Design the sequence.
């Protein structure tokens, strides 16, 4: 029994609020967050471990279906390309808020939204070095849509961002 937390490599798997009971009933860890982390941080070894977890617990999923939704989500995340949407701008600025609203207005099941405020010493900048290569365009909040380790050209207009997000 894993209890309320489990380790996958160096990633701690924590249940969300209210899931402690479900995890106590089911020894299957919830690998959903590491699949997202592995894609966004480029750690193929994490993805390999997640695939092994999904394979190892496939029989358990048949016997204890209460854990199935999280495993299906993890499998879906593993099968689909993760979209990382990076918005470079001041959190309180109107243009930044407009780009964030635009991202939230489009259903994208496998996305990560990152707000980069330009601080090179921030936690995110230290963990995701590629953020240092993304800049605001002409002092405006700027969005980048990244997939498969490649980012789009900079976008400052919410309508253009919507077109890119919702083809």
Sequence:
């Amino acid at each position: 029994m894993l209890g309320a937390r489990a380790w996958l490599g160096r990633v701690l798997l924590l249940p969300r609020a209210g899931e402690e009971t479900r995890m106590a009933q089911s020894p299957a860890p919830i690998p959903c967050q590491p699949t997202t982390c592995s894609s966004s941080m480029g750690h193929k070894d994490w993805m390999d471990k997640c695939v092994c977890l999904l394979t190892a617990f496939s029989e358990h999923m048949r016997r204890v279906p209460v854990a199935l939704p999280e495993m299906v989500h993890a499998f879906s995340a593993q099968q689909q390309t993760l979209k990382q949407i990076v918005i470079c701008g001041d959190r309180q600025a109107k243009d930044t808020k407009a780009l964030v609203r635009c991202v939230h207005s489009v259903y994208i099941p496998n996305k990560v939204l990152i707000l980069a405020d330009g601080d090179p010493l921030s936690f995110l900048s230290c963990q995701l070095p590629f953020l240092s290569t993304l800049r605001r365009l002409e002092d405006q909040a700027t969005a980048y849509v990244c997939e498969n380790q490649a980012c789009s050209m900079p976008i400052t207009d919410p309508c253009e961002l919507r077109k890119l997000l919702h083809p």
